[in-house]
Amino acid sequence: MKRIGVLTSGGDAPGMNAAIRAVVRKGIFHDIEVYGVIGGYAGLMKGKIEKLELGSVGDIIHRGGTFLYSARSEEFKTKEGQQKGIEQLKKFGIDGLVVIGGDGSYRGAKALTEQGFPCVGVPGTIDNDIPGTEFTIGFDTALNTVIDAIDKIRDTASSHERTFVVEVMGRNAGDIALWAGLAGGAETILIPEDHYDMTDIANRLKKGHERGKKHSIIVVAEGVVSGYEFAKQLKEETDFDTRVTVLGHVQRGGSPTAFDRVLASRLGARAVELLIEGKGGRAVGMEKNQLVDYDIIEALGKEHTLDMNLYKLSQELSI
Ligand code: ADP
């Protein structure tokens, strides 16, 4: 392996820059040339590829987003699109590719690997929904953004004795909602991994009010129901003054937390090692604070699982 490429794809996540930096520096440390693909798989098919030097990744470890840009491409889902990408990589003499992204991006990496081009996946998404790793790059930062918002909402909620519904991201995973709800002291957390009972929620809110609670915060994962729809349903059961906040894309931005920077550095560097060891077709992850790697094809066949013990605890602590 003399020359490798790196790209970021799909939804951006804080910490992707730190991961790119790790790939570039680790590669150069091992006398490997590193090329950056601009704009994900769409840029790859067009040959938007440039050499990255040590200095190319200076001053980016603390920046959100991805300086290589990200994109979504329908064309790349076709065999023809993937062949175009491989041709471009070959044109630049690149022997292996690090793909930083979510499960869609992993499918692209899997497709390239199956066609003989070795790729290694690095989990970069705020949703924490990649199987095989306890944490994905960006999750911790998004979580801290949500908690910051919940703390602020709590101030206004208690001043006006209101019920606040906070809708958070996470696609089909409840991780952001669960962790933010637990850390933010929410009364109720709605996750896609469990059904919700509106009568039960309303009764608990009423009980809380009866014992003098000034406000209630309900965290709703976007994969369950929209915050506005939930508030409408709640209104039918109670007469509480309810407000809705949809946090949206603020959850994707911001400077990555120390945790995400360290995670990204470790995972990015490990991805380069795997390519050097000739282990294409793998994905890297972190389990019990240890680096792990596993077959990317196997990973895509598995489901991400939420920590249900944590969910149970959140319910026990919000009685
Ligand atoms: P994420 O990686 O955040 O899950 P997407 O699901 O949008 O984001 O995937 C990012 C890109 O990965 C897509 O736009 C597409 O180019 C590529 N991709 C997704 N699914 C496949 C697939 N089945 N085969 C090849 N490429 C894919």
Q: Brief description of this entry?
A:
This protein is an alpha/beta fold and 319 residues long. The chain contains eleven helices and eleven strands. Helix content is 42%, strand content 18%.
Tag the structure with descriptive keywords.
319 residues; 11 helices; Rossmann fold; ATP-binding; 18% strand; alpha/beta; seven-stranded mixed beta sheet; Phosphofructokinase_CS; binds adenosine-5'-diphosphate
Molecular structure report:
It is built from eleven helices and eleven strands. With 319 residues, the protein is an alpha/beta fold. It has a seven-stranded mixed beta sheet, sandwiched between helices. The longest helix has 22 residues. It is elongated, with a radius of gyration of 21 Å. The mean pLDDT is 95. The protein binds adenosine-5'-diphosphate. The site of adenosine-5'-diphosphate (ADP) has 17 residues, from helix 4.
Strand order of the largest sheet: 3-2-1-4-5-10-11
Helix content: 40-55%
> What is the second-level CATH architecture of the largest domain?
3-Layer(aba) Sandwich
What is the assembly state of the chains in this entry? single chain
Small molecules held by this entry = adenosine-5'-diphosphate
